[in-house]
Design goal:
ATP binds at residues 46-53. The protein is α/β, with parallel strands linked by helices. Helices cover 34% and strands 22% of the residues. Bound molecules: adenosine-5'-triphosphate.
Length: 283
């Protein structure tokens, strides 16, 4: 499947558009109306629950710590988790009227000034489910990107929904994503499914930065020994199977879990030298 065959905009493109489209960009990309976003980074995994949102959150904090202006778009409409990560789940994004028929969205800002938009910042209660079909979800996602008051952003991180479904495909094709970061855990079954998303991204010509192996080990509190949890194979072996450079290995970190439960993950990650070491050189 070539870029054009899989492109949602293919029927709207002239042959000249198609010529100018290039292998890693699809024409008719949508743009934010209320701001300027310099770089979009998509964090994705074919599999649910491997730590995509956790990696998105850590990366956003690392970038903000370096002085960049950062936004996070939680594209997981039916299973949003970014508000909890940042401890902002009690706050609500605001719908600001522009005229009779249109509105813009004021995102919630974290303590570090990261602008976050998520479905869970718009529903009345955070445990209220969203029961929508694909096209509605896709429309809402596009609105999150175009109608949010992002202001000037150096980086917008997109926490992509799990899988290779309609939503992930739409985001990859209609948002001008600079590069993707793939998240996996060191397990055969997970790696096989994650490889599907990598192949999908490669088929549509997306740039992939590399692989983050999450929950790669747990460190003994007493002796500091790193113990593997899921498989005896190394993260490098899994990265080789998936066909990507290994960016870093994240340990299972119960202090992070505790900080998350207390709504203090942002402060914990900001103060933790571990994440400086792991992500410091990435951007
Ligand atoms: N390195 C880690 N150490 C400790 N807990 C972790 C780690 N990574 C993820 N978790 C925990 O595992 C759970 C799943 O993580 P997360 O929500 O980031 O996964 P996800 O891939 O975004 O899930 P989904 O597919 O539902 O969007 C969360 O409770 C998170 O706190």
């Amino acid at each position: 499947m070539s870029g054009c065959e899989s492109c949602a905009s293919r029927d709207k493109c002239s042959s000249k558009d198609k010529e100018n489209c290039g292998s890693n960009s699809i024409s008719l990309k949508i743009m934010p109306k209320y701001g300027n976003v310099k770089n979009i980074i998509g964090v994705i995994s074919g599999k649910g629950g491997v730590g995509k949102s956790t990696v998105t959150g850590i990366l956003a904090i690392q970038l903000a710590k370096k002085g960049y202006k950062v936004g996070v778009l939680d594209a997981d409409i039916t299973g949003p988790s970014m508000p909890r990560f940042f401890g902002i789940n009690e706050q609500r994004a605001k719908m600001v009227p522009v005229d009779e028929n249109n509105f813009k969205i004021q995102p919630v800002e974290t303590k570090l000034g990261i602008k976050v938009i998520s479905m869970n910042l718009l529903t009345q209660e955070e445990d209220q489910p969203v029961i929508w079909r694909g096209p509605v979800i896709t429309g809402v996602l596009n609105q999150f990107y175009t109608d949010t008051m992002w202001g000037e952003l150096d980086y917008l991180l997109i926490d992509m929904p799990p899988g290779t479904g309609d939503t992930a495909l739409t985001v990859m094709q209609s948002f001008p994503i600079k590069e993707l970061i793939i998240v996996s855990t060191p397990q055969d079954m997970v790696s096989m499914i994650v490889k599907k998303v990598v192949i999908m991204a490669q088929k549509i010509g997306a740039n992939i930065r590399g692989l983050v192996e999450n929950m790669a080990y747990i460190e003994c509190e007493d002796c500091g020994k790193k113990m593997k949890v899921f498989s005896k194979k190394s993260s490098e072996e899994f990265a080789q199977y998936i066909g990507l450079p290994l960016l870093c290995e994240l340990p299972i970190n119960l202090d992070l879990t505790e900080a998350l439960e207390e709504g203090k993950a942002e402060q914990y990650v900001m103060e933790s030298p571990l994440y400086d070491q792991l992500f410091g050189a990435l951007y």
